[in-house]
Recover the amino acids of this structure.
């Protein structure tokens, strides 16, 4: 059983990215459990002075990431860029440098937007940032879901359902890639040089 933490970069109650994450479980490999994190709105602005004694919301985020075998992060695109709330969460999770709970995780990154490009610019920025932070980002079909409101539906007793078969097929492939990355310790291999260097500085 692998436990996957899914994080949405939007705080909006009717967020398309949150809805997309909630619709992923049926396409996950057998034995993979996806849990959508709630609480990004509890995080204060990142302040290095607070690192020795972080606020409760930060502790909860860090513990959830630490306990997860892998992550899925879905971002909207605001002003052609990554939203500040998501960057703030990644700052808290990746600090202290080379020692944060985010470092070394295997991650699937995706984006969704009601627009025609699916938030691809924010997705490119997110992937680059995650790699710079010492994570293994699963490659495969680019999941930047355009006109996402036409690809999600609602069924009885289910909050959201991914109705587009093409997007569903892409999701299945990248979630399979996430399973393989976790099984093969891909995240640990990526971050080993960084952690070795960091330990040598103590």
């Amino acid at each position: 059983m692998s436990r996957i933490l899914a994080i949405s970069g939007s705080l909006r109650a009717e967020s398309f990215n949150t809805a997309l994450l909630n619709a992923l479980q049926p396409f996950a490999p057998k034995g993979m459990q996806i849990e959508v994190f709630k609480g990004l709105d509890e995080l204060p602005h990142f302040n290095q002075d607070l690192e020795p004694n972080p606020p409760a919301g930060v502790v909860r985020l860090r513990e959830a990431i630490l306990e997860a075998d892998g992550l899925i992060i879905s971002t909207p695109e605001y002003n052609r860029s990554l939203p500040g709330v998501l960057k703030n969460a990644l700052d808290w999770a990746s600090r202290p440098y080379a020692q944060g709970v985010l470092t070394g995780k295997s991650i699937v990154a995706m984006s969704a937007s009601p627009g025609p490009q699916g938030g691809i610019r924010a997705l490119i920025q997110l992937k680059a940032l995650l790699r710079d932070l010492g994570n293994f980002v699963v490659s495969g079909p680019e999941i930047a879901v355009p006109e996402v409101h036409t690809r999600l539906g609602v069924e009885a007793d289910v909050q959201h359902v991914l109705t587009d078969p093409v997007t569903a097929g892409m999701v299945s492939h990248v979630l399979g890639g996430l399973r393989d990355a976790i099984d093969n310790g891909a995240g640990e291999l990526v971050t080993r040089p960084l952690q070795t260097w960091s330990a040598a500085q103590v």
